[in-house]
Structures are given as C-alpha cells and as structure tokens.
Amino acid sequence: MRIIQDKINEAVSTIMAYGGHGIRNCVQCGACSAVCPGVRAGFPLLCRNLIRHLLNGELEEIIEDASSWGCQACNRCTEVCPQGVRPQEVVFAFRRYQANQLAFSTSSVTSQMNLFETGHAVYTDPTEARKKVGLPEKTPTSAFDDQAKQEIQTLINNSPMGELGLF
Asked: Residue 131 and which of 5, 55, 58, 70 are 20 to 30 A apart at CA?
C-alpha cells in the first residue's frame, strides 16, 4: 500500500510542479469532460480521465498518450469546474511533463507544429465563422498576435522539445 501511495504522491507532485496546482481538488464529477471538445472528438485522456489516471499514480503508464495534445485550450473545462481544479492547467502541466521527458507520440507531431506556428495545438482559421456571427475577425489569441507567437516559439526552442529538431 505504501508503494502505491508513493506513486500517487509522485504523480500529483510532478503535475503540481508543472502548473496543475488544483489537481487535488478534483472530485471526478465530469463537468469538465461534458464540455470538452477534445473529449467529444474522442481523445481518451483529457479532463476527468487524465486527472483520474494522475490521481491514481499512473504517470508513467500514460506518458506516451497523445491525448493531451488534442486540448484546444478553449478553457471551457475551467469555466464549469465547481471545485476550482482548472483542468486545462492540469492538461498543460501533463504536456510539460511529456515534453520534458521527450515523450510524445509521433501522432502528435502535427499538434506540435501547430503549437509552434500558431500558438494552438489544434488550429482552424476562425475568421469566416466569426464574420458570420458578427464577431471581430481576429481572435484575441496567439494566432493573431505575432509577439505571443514569438514568445511561444522561444519557449519551445529553449525547452527539451527544441532539441528534437522538429521546428
């Protein structure tokens, strides 16, 4: 039992160190998963399921899963979470862990390239859809902010991810 608890503590501490500070608050209600486009698209380890695996100490068992790179950073999960977990931050913390371990599936290379080029792991141009509903064509995100994109590229280039030579 002590070994299991040590494994859980290691996984949770690791994710908290990478920015997923609210992970211990999760009660597995599923509100985050209910609104997550990535979960709806079929990525198995996002929101509640990712957090469940981490809270069970399964960090090494899931390190190769590419689901975390399917997160669109829409922040819907954080908006609806009744416990203040901030699931998007947990997902991003897990990404940071994966990146620092140079452990991500080759299927996530497209997401990595998108992140480097646009600041979004999953990106589609929203211009036309936004025009149709009367919103400004450009979203207030890194996709239309050259300085933000440059900062993201600098961070990636200076991380273990930059050593892979993908960018």
From this structure: 70
